[in-house]
TrEMBL record:
Protein name: DUF1489 domain-containing protein
Source organism, top-level taxon: Bacteria
Pfam families on file: DUF1489
InterPro entries xref list: UCP032025
Length: 141
């Protein structure tokens, strides 16, 4: 069964900021795939690689996820081995889910993960992020 990872998206103000940041760095990365390098290798790597995603917390809310494709070993300039979480470039918006800040990353069970938002139909507008976040605070789904 898939296991997800929950991570703060430090420095991004919106999902669009995350998309732009990843696009700008794509040419520098092996295979052009977005990645996040972390000190710790997931102990439950097999579960994470069994269909897991990274759920990004932006401005206090989980707003988007990306499927984790693989884990690559990376050696830092200091000689310390690290783990690169390599993602599918597709950003999948989720229902906003408030989360408190924390250091590093956390595992996220599938039953605790926010649902994906449906794709907008032609002619249908997506809710503004502020409105979607306010509705999430009231428990609207």
């Amino acid at each position: 069964m898939a296991l997800h990872i929950l991570k703060l998206c430090v420095g991004c103000e919106s999902v669009e900021d995350l998309a732009l940041w990843q696009q700008e760095r794509a040419a520098e990365l092996p295979g052009g795939l977005p990645r996040h390098v972390t000190r710790m290798w997931p102990k439950r790597a097999d579960e994470v690689l069994d269909g897991g995603s990274i759920y990004w917390i932006i401005k206090g809310n989980v707003l988007v996820r990306q499927r984790i494709l693989r884990l690559d070993p990376v050696e830092g300039t200091d000689g310390i081995n690290r783990c690169a979480l390599v993602f599918d470039p597709a950003l999948i918006r989720t229902e906003p889910a408030p989360r408190r800040p924390f250091q590093g990353w956390r595992y996220l069970k599938p039953e605790d993960a926010p649902r994906d938002l449906p794709e907008a139909r032609p002619g249908e507008e997506v809710l503004p992020p502020e409105l979607a976040e306010a509705l999430a605070e009231f428990g609207w789904r």
